[in-house]
């Protein structure tokens, strides 16, 4: 075995170089800026044909995987990206592709209405609501809950009564299946009252009551009281003092 050399046998110049190197390395780490996490941009969705190839005969499974990936995009290594910072044209593009893969899935529209549509950004809320409206028209009797939520958002958050009325009228016209609750048909009554078309709202309530489709006594009483309140004339102004 080779004999170990003592520290005293090392030339002073070598020790000096080692000490300077260690000091320089420590100083470099101190002056180096901290690592910065950068958010990766959401890519554009691929074509429907490409996704059909990726699905390998199981589009529903691919739709679920893509939905999980899209929802996880806001949580990237070292950074949490707020929904409002996402490119919403790409977001609804991905949601649309996922819905194309699994048209019976409800989660893409739920995510659109209740997750991405809750951001405090009016322009992005409108992008999401218009997406929900377009996709509702493809399957109204199953997708009505998300457009009904869109009526609420347009009416109470965006204060856009014309948009709310457009959505409510679409619900009344197309969501007519036996599983659709009556209150969905009644939404346009209250939006019409909001926009000042009280006469149209009264006519709709009378038509609903006369149709016989509403059998629940609580609904009948509620609509009857609403109709009565709409028909109550406003009190005359007090006479002017002489």
Describe, in plain words, how this protein is organized in 3D.
The longest helix is centred in the N-terminal third of the chain and has 20 residues. This protein has 242 residues and is mainly alpha-helical. Helix 3 packs antiparallel against helix 4, helix 4 runs parallel beside helix 6 and helix 6 packs antiparallel against helix 7. Helices cover 63% and strands 2% of the residues. The chain has a two-stranded antiparallel ribbon. About 4% of the residues have low confidence.
Spell out the blueprint of helices and strands.
Blueprint: H1 12-31, H2 48-55, H3 59-72, E1 75-76, E2 79-80, H4 88-101, H5 107-114, H6 122-136, H7 140-157, H8 161-174, H9 182-194, H10 198-211, H11 217-231
Antiparallel strand pairs: 1-2
Overview in brief:
The protein is mostly helical.
Q: State the end-to-end CA separation.
A: 126 Å
What's the Cα radius of gyration? 32 Å
Report helical residue fraction: 55-70%
Mean pLDDT: 78
| Number of strand segments | 2
Strand content: under 5%
Q: Give the helices and strands as they follow along the chain.
A: HHHEEHHHHHHHH
- Specify the number of helices: 11
Kindly name the structural category: mainly alpha
Brief descriptors of the model:
elongated; two-stranded antiparallel ribbon; single chain; mainly alpha
């Amino acid at each position: 075995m080779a004999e170990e050399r003592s520290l005293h046998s090392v030339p002073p110049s070598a020790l000096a170089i080692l000490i300077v190197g260690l000091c320089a390395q420590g100083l470099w780490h101190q002056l180096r800026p901290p690592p910065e996490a950068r958010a990766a941009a959401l890519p554009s969705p691929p074509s429907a044909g490409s996704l059909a190839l990726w699905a390998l005969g199981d589009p529903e499974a691919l739709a679920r995987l893509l939905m999980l990936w899209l929802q996880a995009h806001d949580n990237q290594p070292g950074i949490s990206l707020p929904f409002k910072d996402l490119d919403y044209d790409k977001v609804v593009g991905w949601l649309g592709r996922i819905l194309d893969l699994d048209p019976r899935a409800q989660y893409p529209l739920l995510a659109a209405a209740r997750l991405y549509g809750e951001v405090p950004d009016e322009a992005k809320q409108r992008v999401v609501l218009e997406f929900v409206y377009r996709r509702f028209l493809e399957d109204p009797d199953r997708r009505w809950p998300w457009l009904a939520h869109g009526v609420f958002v347009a009416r109470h958050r965006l204060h856009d009564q014309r948009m709310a009325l457009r959505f409510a009228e679409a619900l009344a016209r197309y969501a007519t299946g036996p599983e659709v609750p009556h209150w969905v048909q009644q939404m346009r009554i209250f939006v019409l009252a909001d926009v000042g078309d009280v006469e149209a709202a009264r006519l709709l309530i009378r038509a609903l009551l006369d149709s016989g489709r509403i059998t629940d006594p609580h609904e009948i009483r509620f609509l009857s009281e609403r109709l009565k309140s709409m028909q109550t004339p406003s009190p005359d102004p007090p006479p002017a003092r002489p």
